[in-house]
């Protein structure tokens, strides 16, 4: 019997529903339950073919347990190694390289020294930083948010540089992104499961929390939806997430990816609504069964993204489309100067 386990924290509706759905399907040789842990010994498997991880971002003990599970054969959804390595700034860099539009974004060092360091630890930072260049590149209004944040924690909208310095002064040890504001006509939040199943949801972040998904579907061209779907799949397969949400702000008809590092996205019935909930429960159940059936003992059963795979193989990251839509046409942005782009083949005359 292959077991599918769910590891979760305070959430209630989603984990229970997925367990129930998998068991209702009564697929021969497959069963689902909440993961049970009463000890972790090195190199001892936990006994699950698949574990769906909904909580290790908050519990380092679980993250280490999942790495132990992964190397002893469990297909962990999402890959705990990649999740440990990833953050939003890297996400944006990768998106640019694979041709998915993102807001212009700068990385800002933390206001306070990380615990255990002093000013002497920062021998390589030029102080003050080149703030003029940073503000010119990003522009105002701007958004400031943690490079590894989530759940809207410490997200600020900033109007000018004084506003930036005031707000940044209160961010303690957080490493922040300073990002161009995208003034959007539409906003979408998309589930992506297995790097192939996509659910595009109209979402209005300007509404109070419980009404964000309760927007009437925006009238949207099928071409835009197709582009969104293509970007969602591209981002999730290059990053290597089995389960993620990708948010887009649509400006002048162009979807710009805002937030796509959500490996344990909100799936509560109260926030996403009944129809989206049904989709995510059913798709997760089917996908977990598929992964359990494919799982083989004694080997790695994780999903690895195209970025890692091409790096390991020593191959360049292939950008299929190089459309850059978030830049002002005039001055060259920092990103344009620094981002490696695929070279056009030279044509012999
Ligand atoms: N660059 C941006 N332009 C416009 N709105 C933004 C931008 N960045 C964030 N926001 C707004 O702030 C919200 C939270 O930011 P987000 O990047 O999604 O962080 P979190 O991971 O905490 O959800 C978004 O849903 C969006 O409404
Ligand atoms: Mg978000």
From TrEMBL:
<feature type="region of interest" description="Disordered">
    <location>
        <begin position="320"/>
        <end position="349"/>
    </location>
</feature>
<dbReference type="GO" id="GO:0009432">
    <property type="term" value="P:SOS response"/>
</dbReference>
<dbReference type="InterPro" id="IPR011761">
    <property type="entry name" value="ATP-grasp"/>
</dbReference>
<protein>
    <submittedName>
        <fullName>Glutathione synthase/RimK-type ligase, ATP-grasp superfamily</fullName>
    </submittedName>
</protein>
<keyword id="KW-0547">Nucleotide-binding</keyword>
<dbReference type="GO" id="GO:0005737">
    <property type="term" value="C:cytoplasm"/>
</dbReference>
<dbReference type="GO" id="GO:0018169">
    <property type="term" value="F:ribosomal S6-glutamic acid ligase activity"/>
</dbReference>
<feature type="compositionally biased region" description="Basic residues">
    <location>
        <begin position="340"/>
        <end position="349"/>
    </location>
</feature>
<dbReference type="InterPro" id="IPR013815">
    <property type="entry name" value="ATP_grasp_subdomain_1"/>
</dbReference>
<dbReference type="GO" id="GO:0005524">
    <property type="term" value="F:ATP binding"/>
</dbReference>
<feature type="domain" description="ATP-grasp">
    <location>
        <begin position="92"/>
        <end position="290"/>
    </location>
</feature>
<keyword id="KW-0067">ATP-binding</keyword>
<dbReference type="GO" id="GO:0046872">
    <property type="term" value="F:metal ion binding"/>
</dbReference>
<keyword id="KW-0436">Ligase</keyword>
